[in-house]
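Quick check before the chapter quiz. The format below is the same one you will see on the exam, so make sure you can read both the input and the output lines.
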Amino acid sequence: MSTRLLDELKTNLAELDARALRRVRRSLESPCGPYARVDGRDMLAFCSNDYLGLAADPAIAQALQRGVERWGAGSGASHLVSGHYTIHDELEARLAAFVGCERALYFSTGFMANTGVVPALVGRGDAIFADRLNHASLVDGALLSRADLHRYPHADLAALERSLSGSTAKRKLIVTDSVFSMDGDVAPLADLLELAERHDAWLMVDDAHGFGVLGPHGRGALAEAGLDSWRLIYIGTLGKAAGVSGAFAAGNSEVVEWLMQTARPYIFTTGAPPALAEGLMASLDRIERGDDLRTQLDTLIRVLRDELRLERWQLMNSRTPIQPVVIGDNAEAVAVARALWDEGIWVPAIRPPTVPNGTARLRVSLSAAHTVADVERLAAALRRLEAAR
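Here is the expected output.
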């Protein structure tokens, strides 16, 4: 019996090893937080997207527990059959009000939201204009839509305008991350909206890494930029700064109704457990009154940028909790991450295809649960490792 197919996979895995591209999954033995027990070791972790330190917040955990006691473990069906509960309605209304939109639709994950919303807005014969560094979920959503995909160089407004001007598509959709997950920089949202207005296009903003962190009271990147338009489709993620799970799309009421009627990942997926909505309501309370957490984050970002004086490696220009250190070579990035691990510091090495070739990096993620001493320890270790290599 031929084993050709299996042998091919083994060869492909060996190639990943040779290029230092195989990913390793680690198993946590403690709740999400900066002080982690993982694979039998106590580590100082700079890995998670738990930017406000809410994933293990006792009040949110207690709300989730109350939700299980009230609603049980699961929803039982898709939202449009019998898996939608009154607590889902409350959550969606609260989310919409929080980000200043008419209506919101709750999805089980951010990936589902993006792969559902894009094909609901555009299809064959239409055109999508996407920043080249957009998250994979936005790329996949564009491919699923079968619309013509135009990827412009990162944050290059002139290139985007040329593509828009040359398009004869009936419907146009501009798609961007707000905070780019591997670089930490923020998209020029006001300029993007101006282009959308000028070229009669939708503007979809994935605020996965801005919701809870940016804007007044953590209301997100659009609130920080002071933007409001029926053309805007806002995607917020609830498993990062919010500390729980899921995502939502928000915008004009008719737009959200259309998404509910046509977004296939929403229609054909079992509804999220209603208990999660209870936890998320408590999370929104903490985010709204969380200026202390955001102030702590700002302090930690400033400390890291002041302390991390590098010669060969590059600390990218970011004002967000995502602070990437570009090393370049895949193997060196992995080796530095391993050396940090040996010192009890957990920072992931990010390599292609997640980032462009030649830009392998350490992705440092800060949390309000870190201390200044934690950040100083990391900076000192990185300076020492750079000097030794």
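If your answer matched, good. The CA atoms of residues 345 and 378 lie 7 Å apart.
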